Amino acid sequence: MRRAHTLTVLFILTCALGYVTLLEETPQDTAYNTKRGIVASILVFLCFGVTQAKDGPFSRPHPAYWRFWLCVSVVYELFLIFILFQTVQDGRQFMKYIDPHLGVPLPERDYGGNCLIYDPGNETDPFHNIWDKLDGFVPAHFFGWYLKTLMIRDWWMCMIISVMFEFLEYSLEHQLPNFSECWWDHWIMDVILCNGLGIYCGMKTLSWLSLKTYKWQGLWNIPTYKGKMKRIVFQFTPYSWVKFEWKPASSLRRWLAVCGIIFVFLLAELNTFYLKFVLWMPPEHYLVLLRLVFFVNVGGVAMREIYDFMDDPKFHKKLGQQAWLVAAITATEFLIVVKYDPYTLTLSLPFYITQCWILGIILVLTWTAWRFFIRDITLRYKEIRRQKQEHKHEKDKCLSNGDGHSAMLEEQNGNKLRERKL
């Protein structure tokens, strides 16, 4: 039934596109015709994928919604592959086909400089440094971390990713000028206010969703209009709730998986800044916003698929399709950055930054070896030693009571009887 419905929709869409092309005279503009043909091809593919792609773990507001974003992931990955195989100049100029204002080098904004919270030299507005930093990225930080918290569903992981990204900005500010920020911009405005408040609101929302009663009733079975409106609103909430318990220290497999999730999150965050740097896109461009909206929708599905695979590998024997696509997209974006501007990426880190990262990596590796190898061996040795001591204590207790001599005689007689039988 679903296949027949798909073929019907595809037939109608194809006929409509063909009818449009027959009504008008085909323009003699090659660029315009190429863009129109690519858009029509993408629409046909999305129509097919929305009705035929495999369903993911989410069913609200509708499975077709998540199938749509899965197909958008495929289209975006193909676009990235195309950009990857272009020359640097052609790739940047190709962006003009999307927006004629692109393809022009843009100056990066430096958020550092004067880091005084109160500037007595400016009598007109001593707090001008704070107002200069309060741009459109402040609410973007808050809403971004609110949605990331809904994806990860763990306070510790969110805080680790938030703090780690600030360390990455410190480490890479010699490569990208807009990573250079004041200390209070890093830790007060970003980590505490924007990110911290977003994580807090996200955790409160998760708490409400975990306590909510998930008992669904058909829309037409609800007698009151108020109940119908409430049911429509709740259609955009999860069908059921799964609490994420990552437990990274429970096993080596889960620990490596959590470290991999954190690494991919940080790499995707860095790709946001490096991509707009190498492709000459201004930070406020709508393509940057569309990419973030895209990752918000596909990231939630990917995190659920990863958690299901980790939590119940017997039932979920393979990692979900959306998780693989997100990993492939993140890797392809990084390859584009490497190809388009290898000089920036190869700028050597300052010596003290290198020392800090080496020390951090050594500490993580040392803790991993102690927690999952040395500690287990030590606990196993202590358990064997404890069992031997308990056995020796029971034997001494048996020999020290009043029947100790008779017990020894019975043991000797038993040994002799077993020898005769043999």
Automatic annotation (TrEMBL):
Q: What is its EC number?
A: 2.7.8.29
An example GO CC term for this entry is: endoplasmic reticulum membrane
Please give the superkingdom of this protein's source: Eukaryota
Q: Can you state which reaction this protein catalyses?
A: 1-hexadecanoyl-2-(4Z,7Z,10Z,13Z,16Z,19Z-docosahexaenoyl)-sn-glycero-3-phosphoethanolamine + L-serine = 1-hexadecanoyl-2-(4Z,7Z,10Z,13Z,16Z,19Z-docosahexaenoyl)-sn-glycero-3-phosphoserine + ethanolamine; 1-octadecanoyl-2-(9Z-octadecenoyl)-sn-glycero-3-phosphoethanolamine + L-serine = 1-octadecanoyl-2-(9Z-octadecenoyl)-sn-glycero-3-phospho-L-serine + ethanolamine; 1-(1Z-octadecenyl)-2-(5Z,8Z,11Z,14Z- eicosatetraenoyl)-sn-glycero-3-phosphoethanolamine + L-serine = 1-(1Z-octadecenyl)-2-(5Z,8Z,11Z,14Z-eicosatetraenoyl)-sn-glycero-3-phospho-L-serine + ethanolamine; 1-octadecanoyl-2-(4Z,7Z,10Z,13Z,16Z,19Z-docosahexaenoyl)-sn-glycero-3-phosphoethanolamine + L-serine = 1-octadecanoyl-2-(4Z,7Z,10Z,13Z,16Z,19Z-docosahexaenoyl)-sn-glycero-3-phosphoserine + ethanolamine
Q: What does the record say about its membrane topology? A: Multi-pass membrane protein
GO BP annotation list = phosphatidylserine biosynthetic process
Asked whether the UniProt record includes Signal among its keywords, one would answer yes
What general EC class does the enzyme of this chain belong to? Answer: transferase
Entry's transmembrane regions: 64-85, 155-172, 184-203, 255-274, 286-303, 323-340, 352-373
Asked whether the keyword rRNA-binding is assigned, the reply is: no
Which is an annotated Pfam family here?
A: PSS
For this UniProt entry, which residues form the secretion signal? 1-22
- An example Gene Ontology molecular-function term: L-serine-phosphatidylethanolamine phosphatidyltransferase activity
Q: Family, per the entry? A: Belongs to the phosphatidyl serine synthase family.
Q: What does this protein do?
A: Catalyzes a base-exchange reaction in which the polar head group of phosphatidylethanolamine (PE) is replaced by L-serine.
Protein name (database record): Phosphatidylserine synthase
Q: Which organism is it from?
A: Amazona collaria
